[in-house]
Amino acid sequence: MKKIKISPSILSADFSQLGNEIKRLEAGNADMIHVDVMDGHFVPNLTIGPPVIKTLRKYTKLTFDVHLMISPVHKYIKDYADAGADIITIHPEATENLGESISHIKSLKKKVGVSLNPDTKTNVIIEHLEKIDLVLIMSVFPGFGGQKFIPEVVNKIKELNKIKKEKKLDFDIEVDGGINFSNCKLVIEAGANILVSGTTIFKENDGNLKKNIEKLRTV
């Protein structure tokens, strides 16, 4: 079994202290940093863009796990690659040609992630799975932090894990949305090996990041 990795979402961090927050996450044994990019169009919220990511890059050597909730996404991929993203995750609905966007990310020497919203079926990515490094299963509808976990997505995680085993593929299964100490074991048992969490990591146990990261990994 793969090691369970924790990718804290800086959407729940103190935005006036993002560099220091990232340093705190690294000291707390985070495996990577999850960066939610929203455009106010594809999702109903605005967050950060390439200049901020480029500035934050100098604060850590941890993997930047950048989730692009923007549309149209294809023309902006290089900007995020140049800014310091290590994994670039896109939504099938945000590009006219998913295969071309996957190839574009690969050509920039970055890992490719594809995100599935709660109502997006796995069949939209089946033909691309051999080229994908990570599938991000959204367990809430993207746009805002602090939402409640949608339990129905557990079946999608199981389905994807079954396909992965049957086809002998080696992509990560990441889950994002309402992940907490009550449901983390459920998604891990279903086949997820990367958990994204914001509110739980930054707010529980008086904000003890190290304790919260470890608890999510081992509950």
Task: List its traits.
219 residues, alpha/beta, single chain
How would you describe this protein?
It contains eight helices and eight strands; from the N terminus they run βαβαβαβαββαβαβαα. It is an alpha/beta fold and 219 residues long. The chain has an eight-stranded parallel beta sheet. Strand 4, helix 4 and strand 5 (111-116) form a beta-alpha-beta unit. The radius of gyration is 16 Å and the shape is globular. The mean pLDDT is 96.
Please give the share of residues in helix: 25-40%
Average residue pLDDT: 96
| Shape descriptor | globular
SS-based class:
alpha/beta
Percent of residues in β-strands: 15-25%
Order of helices and strands: EHEHEHEHEEHEHEHH
Radius of gyration: 16 Å
- Gap between N and C termini, in Å? 16 Å
Order of adjacent strands in the largest pleated sheet: 1-8-7-6-5-4-3-2
Main sheet: strands, sense, barrel? 8 strands, parallel
Q: Which regions contain 5 or more consecutive residues with pLDDT less than 50?
A: none
How many beta-strand runs? 8
Q: What's the helix count?
A: 8
